[in-house]
Amino acid sequence: MKNNFLFSITALVSLYMVLLMSCEKVKVEKMSINDSYWAKTETISVNPSLDTDLKVDIAIIGGGYTGLSSAYHLAKKNPEMKIVVFEAKTTGAGASGRHGGMVLPSLLDEYTDEETLKWTYDLSVNNMKFIDSLSKALNINCDLVLNGYCETIFREEDVSEYEDYVKEANAADIPLEFWDKARTKQELGTDLYYGAMYDPNGGSVHAMKLIKLMKTAAENQGVIIYENSPVVSFEEGKIINLTVESNETEYLIEANSIVVATNAYTSKLGIFKNQIMPVHTQTAVTEVLTAEQLEAIKWESRMPFYDSRIMLFHLVLTPDNRIVIGGGNVDTYWNNGLEYKGNLSRVADMMLQELIIMFPELKGIKFEHIWNGILGTTYDEVETIGVMGENKNIFYGLAYNGHGVNQSIMFGDVIAHLHAGEYHGWEDSELYGYELSKIPVEPFKYVGTNIFFKYWKWKDRH
Ligand SMILES: Cc1cc2nc3c(=O)[nH]c(=O)nc-3n(C[C@H](O)[C@H](O)[C@H](O)COP(=O)(O)OP(=O)(O)OC[C@H]3O[C@@H](n4cnc5c(N)ncnc54)[C@H](O)[C@@H]3O)c2cc1C
Fold first, then answer.
1. What are residue 402's phi and psi, to 5 degrees?
2. Is 327 found in the same domain as 184?
3. Which of 13, 67, 145, 165 would be 62's cystine partner, CB 3.0–4.6 Å?
4. DSSP letter at 186?
5. How far is the CA of 264 from the centre of ligand 1 (A)?
6. 221: CA distance to ligand 1 center in Å?
7. Are 308 and 361 within one domain?
8. 172 by DSSP, 3-state: which?
């Protein structure tokens, strides 16, 4: 009797594990359309979906910044190759079209020595200049403002740690500055913080205008982008077979190489299943500030900033004087769920309260819109890039943990170099081919992350 019971439990657990580990077909209906403020204020025409089987040199899965930038750089290096992008919804449907608008350089201090820190920082700064010059060359304005950014210090006891970090960065020739409370207030207007780490490199951008830039750049190089054309599965091999579903029909694609540019959605393709976790987080935008409100808040530098809380808040002042604010809340769902099940109006109330704490002069201001987006996160809080598969023909750039606007576009260039067997420089970073730590399987992941999130929220308030 006891043995029978144990046998049944073991069989059920094994079946459950097999079901969890099996490669399910990507379920597009779980992926929401992009209803961000950025999508509402920049309309990009939608390309036709796939309607035929294809043989291609390179198939790119995902039409966010990683996918579009990889497409652009790969096509530029290989004009003779047939390169296609498959996007499940529309370009920018993922984090690239929904983010908080901050453009950030790489500061990989924990993972690297002084020399490499400077080298990777400079590569990422050069990438911002690349975006700027591409925008000018194609005459597509993406509201890119490179006026620097700040990381503001929420707790007094953390001030000395930031001062030390700035000294370390300066020793590596990275031009950070430590600002005390008074200087922080002078530049950002808010009195909430005990100081800030200022970086002259960084800034802000309109998410969907940047998508338009990268999409146009890729198409100008001859790349074909299919929208509403999800890759529902792929099989590894010297020739990789992909199945793309559009208009309820399955098409077969044969590709010599693929680029996986699906960030938070990657686990649904059956890879990085317990390494990359989708985390839902929300962003809101205010109505346009009046001239009086703008003067009252004294955000003189107009510089974007994020703070040092675990569930940090990030803020951008747009060129038309709205505040884009995000953070303070995250949600994860069972088995890497992609469907948002939270309460946006409750999150909006929490964010508005926080905005008024930062800028009491804005009391009475309203949000015009709030939306959800999904971050690709990892246990080590770092991104990963490299090439995998027995035939070394599966390239990937993934999981930017909430700071990927600039990085993902740079990774497109790194992927093009890797594909060509050329040296880029990023290979010297500890994060090249970084073996991501494993995240526990369900139910431990769901239970564990939700306990941590609740604890972090509590800690951020105390
Ligand atoms: C709310 C929020 C705020 C953020 N704020 C900032 C910020 O201020 N600054 C910053 O630097 N970073 C920020 N980030 C992170 C940044 O947006 C991302 O790191 C970056 O956009 C990742 O780009 P990506 O192309 O790799 O992924 P994504 O933009 O997510 O693109 C992946 C694409 O793949 C598509 N896809 C998925 N599965 C399939 C499939 N099977 N077949 C075909 N297509 C598929 C998706 O529809 C999507 O379009 C934020 C993210 C979020 C969610």
1. 85, 5
2. yes
3. 67
4. H
5. 7
6. 23
7. yes
8. coil
CA 93 to ligand 1: nearest atom:
49
CATH of the domain at 334: 3.30.9.10
Nearest CA to ligand 1 atom 21: 96
Contact indicator for 377, 276 with CB cutoff of 8 Å: yes
Residue 14 φ then ψ, to 5°: -65, -45
Our mutation pick for probing the ligand 1 site, out of 375, 398, 409, counting the most ligand atoms within 8 A of Cβ, is 375
CA distance 329 to 314: 12
Of 94, 412, 458, 98, the residue nearest 265 (C-alpha): 94
Q: Are residues 451 and 350 in the same domain?
A: yes
Distance from Cα 448 to the centre of ligand 1, integer Å: 24
Model confidence at 9: pLDDT above 60: no
- The pLDDT mean for the chain works out to 93
Q: Which element (helix H / strand E) includes 296? A: helix 291-297
Q: Whose CA is nearest to atom 30 of ligand 1?
A: 94
State whether 242 and 300 are in the same domain. no
Helix extents (H) in 27-86: 37-41, 65-77
Q: Are 309 and 317 in contact (CB under 8 A)?
A: no
Phi, psi of 141 (to 5 degrees): -80, 125
H/E element, 210 = helix 207-220
* CB-based burial label for 300 (10 Å; 0-12, 13-18, 19+): exposed
Domain total for the chain?
2
Pair 270, 282 in one domain:
no
Decide: helix, strand or coil at residue 372.
Answer: strand
Those residues with Cβ within 8 angstroms of residue 255's Cβ, 6 or more apart along the chain or in another chain:
55, 56, 57, 58, 59, 239, 240, 242
Contact 200, 217 (CB under 8 A): no
Q: In the predicted model, what is the mean pLDDT of residues 155-162?
A: 96
CA distance 58 to 250: 19
Distance of CA 135 to the CA centre of its chain: 21
Give the pLDDT confidence of 223-274 residue by residue, as tens digits: 999 999 999 999 999 999 999 999 999 999 999 999 999 999 999 999 999 9
Q: Which residue type sits at 356?
A: I
Ligand 1 nearest-atom number relative to CA 67: 25
Tell me how far the alpha carbon of residue 261 lies from the centroid of ligand 1, in angstroms: 9
pLDDT for residue 17 is more than 70: no
- pLDDT of 359-397, one tens digit each? 999 999 999 999 999 999 999 889 999 999 999 999 999
Its domain, for residue 216, covers: 28-97+209-274+380-440
